[in-house]
Specification:
Keywords: Signal. Helix content is 15%, strand content 46%. By secondary structure, the chain is α+β, with helices and mostly antiparallel strands. It has 4 domains: 89 residues, Immunoglobulin-like (Sandwich); 75 residues, no CATH class; 99 residues, Immunoglobulins (Immunoglobulin-like), CATH 2.60.40.10; 30 residues.
């Protein structure tokens, strides 16, 4: 009975295919991508149909479902009239090529069920993908990474792990997870790619050694590099420091007075590395490393100095001072005259 049924279904497929070819109708091809545990719909025919079969092609053609057996596995014919097939709670192994055959319709679906991105672990803790991270040098010259995949494949299924260093291929391994000791240099990136017959998943990482600040520079970022500031103009100055991560303890200061031979400085910014200045003055910035846990370098490293002159504003200030002095002299003269009259 089973043999007769299979032959009958095979004949139906052949007849439908031949009929479609004879009438000039070609099968529509659809490319469907879905995540694991999600749902999809194969809309083979919305018309009332007698026949409705779904086949999956691997090495051979396999009948998944059809009337009078409308449900199998994750797939189900929606109703008894049309040929609309729903796939629910999809699994990785549901990926593949599907052929849907109705009375006069023939549709081909290429389904790719994707799993969540593989994860990279550092010292058995999840590494943040595609971001910069810091590995403390006192943890040793070698670091241990492990790649964890969700492809649900085994070694015999052909799953492989490829490791690369700065885009240079290292090795390929066939394990569900692979731990590898990698030398810990400055600014070196590593990449792992996992592949099977249907798709590949790639994870990138970039890490740096902790490197203390050694140099600090104050630069003029404004378009006009002249040290003279025109009336209504602002100069943009930026404090730059080396080291990784970038120093959190950084500030910009302005000289306000002289105390003997020592200049006095006022902090004008301790939250931003870039400020705008419009007044005459001499500026400096300083920085020291701070790892966020209260551990800081003992001393600040000082930058070069930048001096600007706003002659228009200085002239306005001097003019105002002279005017104030004239007013003061006039008041004193008036008081003196009043005193002389009293005498």
């Amino acid at each position: 009975m089973n043999i007769v049924l299979k032959m009958s279904i095979l004949n139906i497929v052949i007849l439908v295919t031949l009929a479609a070819a004879a009438s000039g109708v070609t099968a529509e091809k659809h490319f469907v991508q879905a995540e694991r545990k999600s749902s999809i719909t194969f809309e083979c025919s919305t018309k009332k149909t007698t026949e409705c079969q779904l086949y999956k092609y691997t090495n051979s053609r396999n009948l998944i479902l059809g009337r009078p057996n409308p449900k199998k596995g994750n797939f189900k014919i929606r109703d008894s009239q049309s040929c609309i097939i729903d796939g629910n709670d999809l699994k990785m192994y549901d990926s593949g090529e599907y052929h849907c055959v109705a009375d006069t319709d023939y549709e081909v679906y290429y389904l790719n069920v994707k799993e969540k991105t593989s994860e990279l672990l550092y010292n058995d803790k999840l590494w943040r993908n595609n971001s910069e991270n810091v590995i403390e040098p006192n943890e040793g010259a070698n670091v241990n990474f492990k790649c964890r995949t969700y492809m649900q494949k085994t070694i015999n299924d052909g799953l492989t792990f490829e490791w690369s260093e700065n885009d240079k291929h290292l090795k390929t391994y066939s394990y569900n997870q692979y731990g590898h000791g990698l030398y810990n240099p400055y600014g070196r990136s590593y990449n792992t790619r996992q592949m099977d017959d249907l798709f590949e998943s790639e994870t990138d990482l970039l890490f740096y050694l902790e490197d203390s600040t050694k140099e600090v520079e104050l630069v003029d970022d404004s378009a006009n590099k002249e040290r003279n500031i025109l009336e209504g103009e602002e100069k943009q100055i930026t404090c730059k420091a080396d080291g990784f991560p970038f120093p959190k303890d950084i500030r910009i200061k302005k000289r306000i007075a002289e105390d003997g031979n020592l200049p006095q400085w006022e902090v004008i910014s301790d939250s931003s590395t870039r400020i705008n200045v419009s007044n005459s003055g001499t500026y400096i910035c300083e920085a020291r490393n701070d790892d966020g846990n209260g551990t800081k370098m003992e001393n600040y490293i000082l930058s070069n100095k930048l001096s600007f002159r706003n002659y228009d504003r200085e002239l306005a200030v001097i003019s105002q001072m002279l005017l104030d002095m004239n007013n003061t002299v006039a008041e004193l003269q008036q008081k003196l005259q009043q005193q002389l009259k009293l005498e």
